[in-house]
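Continuing the series of single-chain predictions for the mutant panel. This is the parent chain; the variants come on the following pages.
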Amino acid sequence: MSIDQTDEAVPALELRSLAKSFGGLKATRDVTFRVMPGDRKAIIGPNGAGKTTLFNLITGIYPVTSGQIFLFGNDVTKWRSHQRTALGMARTFQVTSLFPKLTVLDNVLLAINGLQPSKFVMWRPLASYRSTYDKAHSLLERASFLDRKDVEVRNLSHGEQRQLEIVLGLASDPKILLLDEPAAGLSSGESTEMAHFLIKLPRDLAILLIEHDMDVVFDVCAEISVLHFGELLETGTPEQIKKSQRVQEIYLGTG
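Parent structure:
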């Protein structure tokens, strides 16, 4: 199959019996999972459930112990992170990696330019790359950030910085976006804004997120999977997960 295969019948991401062990510790166990193009899915679970480890396997940071990872029909189990990015995957992290003293626009320009061969041409001014500027403006406009393009990042609210981190993740034109706790550290109002921001992202973009803020999860995602001790315990709609006695007992704390 061609690596640019984007047929809607082909999963954007597929995990088959994925497992990871650190010595005698089994961090993930037999995880089988699919994300189709345009899906909005979440993985939830208590601290230590293996959520971030799973993301590190999917993105190539950790090698798998057993099982397979497919990206748009291609077996990428042994591929490096940058190869998976080139195929259409992007990820954000819990801790932001922005340049606080630079403007919003400069941060986006650097993210775009870092993906291009031109990043090695040190003597050419960034302003001479018209297509880079056009793309940066387009990304900021789509994210309703254009009015803040000249604001230094350190002057943005924490919630705005988290949203900008996602804008930078879109710089590689991904077809699937992995979000690692996008609402971490946000106030209630900022979490609501984050949910609205995520809902407005392009509908053909598949999103898989890890999140503790259940309001964000329930607002954004159509399907939720619960990870517990490295295993997928249950998968269902927000309503099914809300009503699940097992989920309430091990995660929501209402059992």
